[in-house]
Amino acid sequence: MSKDEIAQIKITLEGITPSIWRRFQVEKEITFHQLHRIVQEVMGWTDSHLYGFKVDEKEYQDDRDNELLDGENILSSRKHKIDILKIKQKFRYTYDFGDCWEHLLIVEKILSKENAISYPVCLEGERNCPPEDC
User: Fold this and answer.
1) In this structure, what are the phi and psi dihedrals at residue 53, rounded to the nearest 5 degrees?
2) pLDDT of amino acid 74
3) What is the pTM of this model?
4) ∠ CA(63), CA(34), CA(104), 5° rounding?
5) 105 CB burial (10 A radius; 0-12, 13-18, 19+)
6) Model confidence at 68, in pLDDT bands (50, 70, 90)?
C-alpha cells in the first residue's frame, strides 16, 4: 500500500428513511480515531459521545480515557490505521452507545492522491442527521 492512496467511502445512517448519507475521501494512512473525527464532521454530529468501529470481527474504540489495551477483538482506534481496508469492504461505525446510532460504511474506491486536493474531502450527501441525544 502506498502512502499516496486514498479511500473513497460512502457512509449511511441505518434505520432512517429517507436515507441520510455522505460520500467522502480520506488518506489511507489515518487512524480509526481520525476517521471518527471526519465522520463526525461530514455527518454533522457533535462528537459528544463514545464510538466504535467494527471491521470484520475486530472492534476499534477510543482508549484515551479507559486505557483499553489492544486485545484480540478490541483494538485502540488511536493506534490502528485504516490502511487495512480494502475496496468494496463494508464495516460499521456506532456513535453514542446510549442512543446507538449505527452507520454502514463501504469502501467504494481506492485511488491515488491528487496533489491539488486537500484531504479529507466530502464529495456529496443527502439530508441531516437527527439532533444529538434523541
Assistant:
1) -110, 145
2) 86
3) 0.93
4) 95
5) buried
6) low
Q: Which three cell numbers stand for residue 30?
A: 489515518
User: What length is written for the chain?
Assistant: 134
Q: What is the pLDDT of residues 23-45, one digit of tens each?
A: 999 999 999 999 999 999 999 99
Residues 90-104: tens digit of each pLDDT: 999 999 999 999 999
Q: In the structure grid, which three cell numbers stand for residue 119, read together?
A: 484531504
- SS3 string, the chain, reads CCCCEEEEEEEEECCCCCCEEEEEEEECCCEHHHHHHHHHHHHCCCCCCCEEEEECCEEEECCCCCCCCCCCCEEECCCCEHHHCCCCCEEEEEECCCCCEEEEEEEEEEEECCCCCCCCEEEEEECCCCCCCC
Amino acid, res. 53: F
Question: Which string of b and e fits 65-104 if b means at least 16 CB within 10 Å?
Answer: eeebeeeeeebbbbebbbbebeeebebebbbeeeeebebe
